[in-house]
Amino acid sequence: MITDTTSLKLEKENPDAEDFLPLLGTDYVEFYVGNAKQAAHYYKTAFGFQSFAYAGLETGMKDRSSYVITQDKIKIVLTSPLNAESPINDHLAKHGDGVKVVALWVDDATKSWEETTKRGAKSYMEPTKEEDQHGYVVRSGIHTYGDTVHIFVERSNYNGVFLPNYRKWESHYNPAPVGLKYVDHMVGNVGWGEMNKWVEFYAKVMGFAQLISFDDKDISTDYTALMSKVMSNGNGRIKFPINEPAEGKKKSQIEEYIDFYDGAGVQHIAVATDNIIHTVTEMKNRGVEFLYVPSNYYDDLLDRVGEIDEDIEPLKERGILVDRDDEGYLLQLFTKPQMDRPTLFFEIIQRKGAKSFGKGNFKALFEAIEREQEVRGTL
Asked: At what angle do helices 362-376 and 253-261 cross, to 10 degrees?
């Protein structure tokens, strides 16, 4: 077994990736939102997250408040500005609610910053030691597509709740988890002709290698098309598909996103579950809306994907999609946009051996999105 250079000595899944930026996994995802307190309540109620940490006026933060929610290995930070001067307002005015930070867990945040900036990354945050009575954290950061940033988090010398300036957030309202386990992948939408630029960025600056490429013949319907390439680090814990629009008869979902987000950004976060039927049932019961596919999708499902462990009927009732590759199969379903603008959504995914991304479902999925676009008048 070939291992990477992280302290965990993880198996190297992607042999073409370089090892100059060892990544242990996703640390947290930070959203800039208009009302963090209310957003936290929504994700607790609908997605089964738990209260975890808080930062704000009470902890010495003067310009923002942040609520951290958690479920298994997933941590989401929801941040809102506290005054008109906060630069977070500019992000909200331009993009609406959306992902600002994709934070990556590392052994050495200083070396991560040095290795990426010397290869051409634009610095967002020089290595900074943040400390309190529980120890210290080192964070650094670089810019990626649009206004999105990666922050490298080194926390081996810290035993506080989350980060310095945060305190434990305890609540008597603790809805049960829905079974979400970890971030499987995060997809970025970029503008016309920009996909290869950002593919090269992740390869050159971060040492990622391409796993899969989809062109407009793979991902198209009668009306719309896109192109996509999947970039992954060596141990496979960080996977970033990058989408760009392709020419079609009508406006694709990628164009719609770019229009309403006003630029490139994170399109969706795919979160893993061990039991997608339970997870989707719980989320639907709590008010989360999902895309739907016509029932005839299931008529020849077993002919397309072969034998699966699940009965067809529960999948059909919930609109869960299935696809197979050489290593197994996967089940997946996509929420409708979770913001007021038709931008960010979530994917729920259960992998049963499959390492791929559901290529066989692209057409059905896109047609489902087009039906939503038609209702919005943005197709």
From this structure: 50
Cα-based angle 11, 139, 185 (whole degrees, multiple of 5): 45
Yes or no: say if 279 and 273 are a contact pair by the CB < 8 Å rule.
yes
Report pTM: 0.96
DSSP state of 158: B
How many Å separate Cα 267 from the centre of its chain? 8
Taking only the tens place, the pLDDT of each residue in 217-265 is 666 677 777 889 999 999 999 999 999 998 888 888 999 999 999 999 9
3-state SS record for 308-354: CCCCHHHHHHHCCEEEEECCEEEEEEEECCCCCCCCCEEEEEEEEEC
Which residue has tokens 């499959």?
354
Q: Which domains does the chain have, with CATH numbers?
A: 25-168 (3.10.180.10), 180-376 (3.10.180.10)
| 235 neighbors 11 (Cβ within 8 angstroms) | yes
Q: In angstroms, rounded to a whole number, what is the distance separating the alpha carbons of residues 22 and 235? A: 9
Q: Is the pLDDT of residue 216 over 70?
A: no
- According to DSSP, residue 130 is labeled E
Contact 107, 154 (CB under 8 A): yes
- Which tens digits make up the pLDDT trace of 46-70? 999 999 999 999 999 999 999 999 9
Give the list of residues 6+ apart from residue 60 with CB closer than 8 angstroms, or none: 165
Number of alpha helices (DSSP H) and beta strands (DSSP E) in the chain: 9, 17
Helix intervals (H) in the chain: 36-47, 88-95, 109-117, 195-206, 253-261, 276-285, 301-305, 312-318, 362-376
Point out the least confidently predicted range of 3-17, 29-43, 209-223.
Answer: 209-223
Tell me the pLDDT of the chain averaged across its residues. Answer: 94
Sheet holding 239-246, edge to edge: 209-214, 225-232, 239-246, 180-189, 265-273, 345-352, 328-334, 321-325
- The conformation of residue 228, written as its DSSP 8-state character, comes to E
How confident is the model over 81-96, as pLDDT tens digits? 999 999 999 999 999 9
**Token code pair at residue 277:** 């039927």
Burial 278-316 (b: 16+ CB within 10 A, else e): ebbbbbbebebebbebeeebbeeeeeebeebebeeeebe
User: What residues contact 199, with CB distance under 8 A and at least 6 apart?
Assistant: 210, 229, 231, 242
